[in-house]
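Example record

One chain of 207 residues, shown exactly as stored in the release files.
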Amino acid sequence: MHPTRFIIAAACALILSGCASQKGQPTTQFDFGPAAPATAQAPAPGALGPVVVTDVTGSSALDNERMFYRLSYADPLQARTYANSRWTANPLQLLTQRFKTRLAQAGARVLSETDASTGIPLLRIDVDEFMQDFGGVSQSTGVVAVRASVFRGHALVDQRSFRRSIPAASADAAGGARALAAGTDAVAADIVAWLAGMPATVDTARR
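Predicted structure tokens for this chain:
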């Protein structure tokens, strides 16, 4: 075989073997872990009344189990995915459950849209960003950014944006998962504090 052809064939063999070994690696799955008691100061008893929490919405890219990251130092316009790491459920589902859990821990009566009666405030959360962002080769943060809106009937009561950026302990999927979980809990605490200070969330059943 001609030396040039031999080199090309060897290179192709190496690439194919690399792809095969990557596909053969087991997939690691992550979630947010158990919802430990919040460390932030809880609202005063009775500060939160019943609230309807709708399913979190966001980009279609979040409607699957892939774990995204961005190399902002190299190409900030490209979203990449880990090859062998996945969420146990899509991030929108994980966020919905976590926000409901944190609200319930704070003393709110969390209702679904089918259970709510007229006049109960409705909380809708839209995700603007949920990704591990690498600012350098070995430095990354878990970024969680959402827009929260409270409605009473069809009327918008208030809307606010929340954003948290938590440093990752390691520059890999595991570090990103932990940072995003911590960022989600921090955003949830911000939303709880916001709702607790909002007159519209007072329990209408006591009026």
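Notes: Residues 1-21, 200-207 have pLDDT under 50 and may be disordered.
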